[in-house]
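Sharing a chain and its predicted structure for anyone who wants a worked example. Both blocks are below, sequence first, tokens second.
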Amino acid sequence: YPPFQNRGTGRARHIPRRSSRAERRSKASVAGGVAACTVLAALICFFAGLLPWQPVAVATGSMEPQISVGDAVLVSKLDTGALEVGDVIQFRRGDYTVIHRIVEIIQEDGALSYVTKGDANNAKDAGAVSAGDVVGKVIATVPGAGRWTLWLHGA
């Protein structure tokens, strides 16, 4: 008897068709492509600074031993009023940015400014950092993850 016919009654019955290997591969390929595109879009947003955090490669040893040359730090954009003594921040200083620890907070005439110091430095940084110059707070460190960025920039 053919596989679609019921032997006892002679009536046709429905037998579900199994998907072919090619169909299964095609579905897996589409799912993999969607996943890859999603990851790529997330990485582009992350590195372009479109998310509330951004990665930064560390080029100097002023924060050693906690943060070393070649490490990558994750900087969170936040309200500067939430910063405390002991927080590590990224701030603008002229044409470049610096990652140092807050050692003192000054409030004068309603304006906040921060005195900073690198952990490996002997003295505090010259001049206080205004709240407007703060880029964000360091929330994580990934050892060695910034080396390729430094290599690409020739640092």
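Comments welcome. The first strand starts at residue 53 and ends at 57.
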